Amino acid sequence: MIQIINEELTFAFPEVHERARISMHFRICAGDGNALPIICQNQNDEFLVSSKHPLELHFRPANFYPFAVIVMVDGINAMSGDGTAVLSRVPLSFFVTPPQGAIDAFQFRDEARPIKATKKTFSNRTGLSLQVYPMKRKQYDFFAMQRRLIPGPERIGPHIREGMERTCEPIYEDLSSLGDWDRYNGERCMIWLELPTVGD
């Protein structure tokens, strides 16, 4: 189930675990820290965010419940930099939150590019898709006792395309196995990042 609650996309998985819930929102990089409005486009899990600035995508898992999140930007996997659209270890295709709190770029070849709407020939928007997979109940109950997700030093790139330093945080390593994630109860949605017609 996907809802907009207080400017955040909220994913809930009661069929997996009563604690399995995560919220996500966008902020302007180096902005005032406020979440940008998210507009529901239709009943097919499509949403709209309007901004001309590079954006940060923030993750807020409830109850420290772990999730694997695949982020695709115009068909490019934000972690692996290719078209991988499934949970994969080689190449690593997903972020894990916690500990990941936010991302501000996506991998493209050997560089990290900002997450932002871009002007194209036929449109002024960028498609960002999210696939969200909760940890299985049994694994979460173990995780809740052991807290075995440990942050690691991996990053998706040294600088974003315009030459600015990354403003968020490094990418954290996932020490779980692919079998820990409930791939049969995931949720997917599309978010269109659109350039505003006037102003910001």
Task: Furnish the topology, listing elements before pairings.
Elements: E1 2-5, E2 8-12, E3 21-28, E4 39-40, E5 46-50, E6 55-61, E7 67-73, E8 76-77, E9 95-97, E10 102-103, E11 105-108, E12 111-114, E13 125-134, H1 137-146, E14 187-194
Overall geometric form: globular
Order of helices and strands: EEEEEEEEEEEEEHE
| Rg value | 16 Å
Structural class: mainly beta
Largest sheet entry: 7 strands, mixed
User: What gap, in angstroms, lies between the N and C termini?
Assistant: 30 Å
Mean pLDDT over the full residue set: 84
How many strand segments? 14
Could you characterize what this model shows?
This protein has 200 residues and is mostly beta strands. The protein has one domain (2-194). It is built from one helix and 14 strands; from the N terminus they run E-E-E-E-E-E-E-E-E-E-E-E-E-H-E. The chain has one helix spanning 137-146, and strands at 2-5, 8-12, 21-28, 39-40, 46-50, 55-61, 67-73, 76-77, 95-97, 102-103, 105-108, 111-114, 125-134, 187-194. The strands form three sheets. Strands 4, 5, 7, 8, 9, 13 and 14 form a seven-stranded mixed β-sheet that branches. Strand 4 (39-40) and strand 5 (46-50) form a beta hairpin. The chain is globular and about 50 Å long. The chain starts with a strand and ends in a 6-residue tail after the last strand. Mean pLDDT is 84; it is low at 149-166.
